[in-house]
Specification:
Elements: H1 3-31, H2 35-61, H3 76-104, H4 113-140, H5 143-172, H6 177-204, H7 210-221, E1 228-236, E2 242-251, H8 256-274, E3 277-286, H9 291-304, E4 310-319, E5 324-331, H10 338-352, E6 357-364
Parallel strand pairs: 2-3, 5-6
Antiparallel strand pairs: 1-2, 4-5
Helix pairs in contact: 1-2, 1-4, 2-3, 2-5, 2-6, 3-5, 3-6, 4-5, 5-6, 7-8
Length: 368
């Protein structure tokens, strides 16, 4: 079964389960005069709507690439996840308002055995549904399903709180319904904010995971000609479409035909190992017969140790004909004076190697 069909199937199961739960909880909430159970029913309806939006997003994101969108429509899933976040947030705000009103104008709940049984059953259903949806989302790399799964697991906690409030009322006569409703509302609002935050981060271009970074670098480093992999960039276009580029350091005595063959082999292996398309490979030439380059590499690495935010040096090359030394310096994003660090390192290298033109390119730690 392909990815889109699996997402749709999972979402349909979520819709059916949430509609039934909402209907039962609304009925019980009304007849027992329970604001907490009624708010829980509203939350189930928002979950059903979220599942429907997930289906729409999965369908649209599966559209084939065209001239206007050559990388496809996968990022539509980010937009649908944002919509889900807004729905969750709206449900939380309305629940909060309703609960506050119940504190101002309290009503005594009237629980029955049937109500408690239904709420208990809802907790079990929500746990199973949440685990199923979240795991399916992680397996299919669907942010929308993961968000729905997390929301369902939160709902199980909410339902458990509702059940606890009912038990407290039955055993002590103390009604904490409205206060539980506020707690429920705050949890819903928190989930909405977290969903929006994560999705906006993906749209802006979030840092790739350490697992992905290492898997790609390990794949490239498996070739004996490659001395190191740097400046790895991975762009996520949604719907499991990842496109990347990287710099590799190779000996300076490799011929152009050999480089061409190596780049093709790397692209093929990375795609096979990770499913990521490597669209560009840039070359750092490594001195193989220059003892001075070996000494310089060690000295520069010692120099940058004096600057905590100078994370790495790579791509070092000495051109003896033009008396030029070039390398890249990776500076942490938290360093405020990046140019200052580069200037200081440049000055110290030039003092050691007088007469050489030292050129240092600023680099960032885009990936681990």
């Amino acid at each position: 079964m392909n990815r889109t069909k699996k997402i749709v199937q999972t979402s349909i199961i979520g819709i059916i389960a949430n509609v039934f739960l909402a209907a039962f909880k609304a009925f019980i909430g009304i007849i027992s005069n329970s604001v907490a159970i009624t708010m829980d029913a509203v939350n189930n309806l928002s979950d059903a709507m979220s599942s429907f939006i997930t289906i729409v997003g999965a369908r649209l994101s599966a559209k084939e690439p065209d001239k206007e969108h050559p990388y496809g429509y996968g990022r539509i899933e980010y937009l649908t996840t944002m919509v889900i976040g807004v729905i969750i947030l709206y449900a939380g705000i309305t629940s909060l308002i309703e609960s506050v009103q119940k504190i101002i104008n309290p009503a005594t709940p009237d629980y029955s055995a049937a109500a408690l049984i239904i709420v208990t059953a809802a907790i079990i259903v929500k746990i199973l549904l949440g685990l199923y949806t979240k795991r399916s989302g992680e397996k299919l790399s669907s942010d929308s399903l993961v968000a729905s799964g997390k929301d369902a697991l939160n709902d199980s906690i909410i339902s458990a709180s509702t059940l606890l409030a009912a038990i407290i009322f039955i055993t002590t006569g103390l009604s904490i319904e409205a206060f539980v409703g506020i707690i429920i509302a705050v949890m819903i609002i928190k989930t909405g904010f977290e969903t929006l935050k994560e999705t906006i981060g993906e749209i802006l271009g979030a840092r790739i995971s350490t697992e992905i970074s290492r898997s790609v670098k390990n794949s490239i480093n498996s070739f004996p000609e490659v001395n190191g992999v740097y400046d790895l960039l991975i762009h996520d276009y949604g719907n499991q479409k990842l496109v990347g580029s990287a710099h590799i350091e190779i000996p300076d005595d490799i011929t152009v035909p050999q480089i061409d063959k190596l780049e093709r082999q790397i692209a093929t292996k990375v795609l096979k190992d990770t499913g990521i398309v490597i669209s560009g490979i840039s070359i750092y030439s490594m001195n193989t017969s220059n003892q001075k380059a070996i000494e310089l590499r060690a000295k520069v690495n010692e120099i940058i140790k004096d600057y905590p935010n100078a994370l790495q040096m790579h791509g070092l090359y000495i051109d003896e004909e033009e008396k030029k030394i070039t390398f890249d310096l990776v500076i942490s994003f938290k360093e405020k004076d990046k140019k200052g660090v580069i200037d200081k390192v440049k000055e110290r290298v030039e003092k050691i190697y007088e007469g050489y033109d030292v050129q240092i390119a600023l680099d960032y730690d885009y990936s681990d």
